[in-house]
Structure formats: C-alpha cells, structure tokens
Predict the 3D structure of the following.
Amino acid sequence: MIQIRDLTKSYGTTTAIKDLNFTVNKGEVVGFLGPNGAGKSTTMKIITGYMAPTSGSVTIAGFDVFENPIEVKKRIGFLPETPPLYTDMYVWDFLAYVAKLKGVEKSHIKSQVEMAIERTHIQSVSHRLIQNLSKGFKQRVGIAQALVSEPEILILDEPTVGLDPKQVAEIRDLIKELKGKHTVVLSTHILPEVQASCERIIIINRGRIVAEDSLLGLNRKMTGNHRIFVRVKNLNENLLSALGGVKGVVDVKKGDAPGAIVLTTENDETIQENIATKIATSGAGLIEMRAEDYSLEDIFLKVTAEGELR
C-alpha cells in the first residue's frame, strides 16, 4: 500500500532523513516513532505530498506521490501535528467543505460527515464554531476531517495531543476499529498508545531507521539478553551479590516493589532453575519468579541511544 525507497531529504547542509526504506501493507496499523528532530514529520509530509524529497521515491497504492498527486491525495487522510482547521467555520460545515474538497460525491457528503462525527464522538459540538471548542474537541475535529472521505490510508501525527484520559481511550478504540478497514500510520510520543494499537513499529533516529519489527520481534532482538523478575521474602545485599555470581547473569538490580529483584541474563534454558536454586539455598524465600519482556520504552531508549537494533 505504501512503499518508501531510498528516501532522502536535505535542507541545505542539514540532512533530515537519509535513505529510508520501508513498506506498509494494506490494513496494517504501524507505529512510527522517534525523538524530536528525528525526521518523523518530514517523512509524513513527503508521503502525503506536502513536501518534495531530495531523492528517492514514495508510491501509494501503486501511484507515485509526485507524478500522480491527485490520485494519491484521494487515498490519504492526514492529521498533521497541528490540525488544519478553519476556526471561523461551524464543525458540520467545515467537514462538509473538506469532503467536497476531497472529491466525495455530493449525494454522499451528508452521510460521510455523519460517519466522521460519530466515529470521533463530536455530536455534541457539531453545530458550534470551531474557534469556541476546547483543544481536545479541536483535535477530534482534526481526526474527523482526516476520516471524512473514508480514505484507504490514514496518516496520524500525534492524534491524542491535548486529549484527556477518557478521550485518549476513545481514540485508541477508534484506531483499533480502523484496523483492517484502513491502513494506518501512527506517529506519537505516547509509547503506550503504540504498544496498545500497532501491529508493527518503525523507530527512526537522526534521519535513519534504527529498528523495525513487531513488539515481540523487537524484544527478541534486544542484544540476545533476557530479563527475569524475582520477588523474595528477605532481600539483602548478600543475596544480590550471590545472584550476580550465577553463571549467565549479566546484571542484578533491586526492583521498585518490596523484595523485588530484576535480573538481566543470557539466553540460557537453565538460568531460571539456577537462580531459583541460589535463592532457595540462601534462605531468602522465593515468592515469585517470571520472565519479563522489555517494554517499548526500554527498546526506544536503547535504539535511540545506541543505534540500530538487529
């Protein structure tokens, strides 16, 4: 559905993105992550035809973004970081106007506007001036304008900015509803949103892709190490030192909860048994032990600090 090949964008002597290559398949929900200045917004502006690249190509449903811009824009709904709203218009009129601009047939405009309003839960403000809305409702109107033409592809840049926790949950549910019906590229700094909504994650740093996989796949690539959570009755420094001496244990730290220990270990099938034996012989009293996945935050911090995750 979306194909990016050798995409590069430079501003004078500054290179914003360099040789990006990735594909987003039809119906996928993909998280596009990176620290500030990594090149996320530049990439999305190029994908949507708002900006030309220095080199490389972007094709949407087989159409080149710059050779066939009208065909591409018919297929994309875009929510930039700052929603593109005409604040002196009423919500309903604005959405009808956007639908007309996007080529929705006149006979379908009313039903498409109603669909966008219902999906984004803005029925209560649909006849109010946009300038009089709260920031959260303005954000939802921005999402509605991206949806109003029922596009094949949705590019959402920070869609939950300014929303309260209830509204964030509603947008998360909306993104889940769109799965399979639309191809979605979601860029956000809120990592739990990506973890909850996305099937695949692309992490960009300093203009280059440093990780690309499912969350499970990224976990498996984390330096080949595993993490084990342990909770004991009697935690002391002697136990921590003893666990650090177990073959295959790379690191030992106290956890946040009382009696908690977090161990980083090599990939060894016998390691958990050896750790349990050490705790049992120490008399510390083993309460709980489980393998623990790395969080998306752990992965994000590692790859943006150290470089590509292979």
Remarks:
- The first strand starts at residue 2 and ends at 11.
- The CA atoms of residues 169 and 175 lie 10 Å apart.
- The mean pLDDT is 88.
- The two ends are 25 Å apart (CA to CA).
